[in-house]
Amino acid sequence: xxxxxxxxxxxxxxxxxxxxxxxxxxxxxxxxxxxxxxxxxxxxxxxxxxxxxxxxxxxxxxxxxxxxxxxxxxxxxxxxxxxxxxxxxxxxxxxxxxxxxxxxxxxxxxxxxxxxxxx
Length: 119
Prior knowledge:
By secondary structure, the chain is an alpha+beta fold. It contains 4 helices and 3 strands, in the order αβαββαα.
């Protein structure tokens, strides 16, 4: 899906990433997650900011372009479990677990409805 341009610009990431983040924090016990988009990837940066991720820094000339060999800056965004839970309180139970039924994960319309509760 990431490489399929048919999905680009349709906010698919904003619909699916919250479900994955809930899984990592609630099921896997992860305390911090990071994302490292290239500084030129404006849509990815927009998505991280929209979801409330914190910019931790810019890694100057960190990556090398496979296309032309130029050095590229890479940004690092992070989300802590407590920050994620604080931003998701309307749909989170007392244990900090998202109140999304497992069957809702199979139907895109229900996912959109659940995500609207959190935003």
